[in-house]
Design brief:
single chain; 60s Ribosomal Protein L30, Chain: A; 320 residues; 5-stranded antiparallel beta sheet
Length: 320
């Protein structure tokens, strides 16, 4: 009787190595040429910085992966993975520089992993950052053969005196402007999946639309000097996330009068979900919120329009 080896235990070193070579071979400037070492890095160009600050963030895709599994489509969740981290960086005023991924699975399926990493590279291209490393962990005793989980990590740079939010510049009457979402993005799927008819594949495909990456658009707006703060609208909805970037004693009051993507009505109707619950879980059509002085907001909206950036009034800061 032959003895055990790693392959028989459920882990394929060969497939893992093949996947690493596949990533290195992707023809994209967003893939680091040094990929495959023990650590990844990128040269720092600090020209123009007096007090550069490095910021880092991490996030995942959550149970949206179960939507991908149901549809057998994994080519967009890599974009989500990048989006969730780089959007968190840019609201601090930071320009994303590096991204790393962590993929955990029960069994290496080349078709699935290739689609995931191609999405990651596409996300890095959109965010103008570089994929500098990652880890693929095949753990058959922890995950089922068709299970996969993702985590992402991003690093960005910002001048210290240009970091957001600028809390000392905010006051009652400042406006909250919204940047449209592409749909549900990557939060709330534990609720959404239970509210959608399992046979309604068209709606399931809508749930899979990737998170919008706002890096280039928001950096354009920040350069105007009119942005006091910004919030990436993820879990906790619009109110909960804007609260994180405004001073104590103020809260955001929203008009709730903008056009909301139809997917949210499908979720609400399918699950019999109340308005308050919907607004506390989902982005409800605004993936990024921007805070500006009342007297400068209209000009900021005009500047955004001239650059092809959708931006509209969503609410204002009030006492409370």
């Amino acid at each position: 009787m032959s003895g055990l080896d790693y392959e028989k235990a459920g882990v394929s070193i060969r497939k893992g190595d093949d996947f690493a070579r596949f990533i290195k071979g992707i023809p994209s400037k967003a893939v680091s040429k040094g990929l495959g070492g023990f650590a990844g890095g990128a040269a720092l160009d600090l020209r123009g910085y007096r007090e550069p600050v490095l910021l880092s963030t991490t996030d995942g895709v959550g149970t949206k992966l179960l939507v991908a599994k149901k549809l057998g489509r994994y080519d967009t969740v890599g974009i989500d993975l990048v989006a969730m981290s780089v959007n968190d960086l840019v609201v601090c005023g930071a320009r994303p520089m590096q991204f790393l991924d962590y993929i955990a699975c029960g069994k290496i399926d080349e078709g699935v992993l290739h689609a995931v990493i191609e999405g990651v590279v596409a996300g890095c291209e959109q965010a103008s950052c570089e994929l500098t490393g990652g880890e693929t962990a095949e753990m058959p005793d922890l995950y089922g053969p068709e299970d996969i989980d993702l985590a992402g990590f991003a690093v960005g740079i910002v001048e210290k005196n240009k970091m957001l939010p600028r809390l000392d510049g905010m006051e009652e009457g400042d406006l909250v402007l919204g940047m449209p979402s592409a749909g549900v993005h990557s939060n709330g799927h534990s609720l959404a999946r239970k509210a959608v008819d399992p046979e309604d594949l068209e709606t399931w495909r809508e749930l899979l639309v990737p998170t919008k990456i706002y890096v280039r658009e928001l950096l354009e707006l920040i350069t105007t000097g009119r942005v006091l703060g910004a919030a990436h609208i993820t879990g906790s909805g619009l109110g909960g996330n804007v609260e994180r970037v405004i001073p104590r004693g103020l809260r955001a009051s929203f008009a709730w009068d903008w056009e909301v993507p139809p997917i949210f009505a499908k979720i609400q109707t399918g699950g019999g979900i109340g308005d308050e619950e919907m607004r506390s879980v989902f982005n409800m059509g605004i993936g990024m919120a921007v805070i500006a002085k009342r007297e400068e907001a209209e000009g900021l909206v005009d500047i955004a329009a001239s650059k092809g950036i959708a931006l509209f009034r969503a609410g204002e800061l009030v006492r409370g």
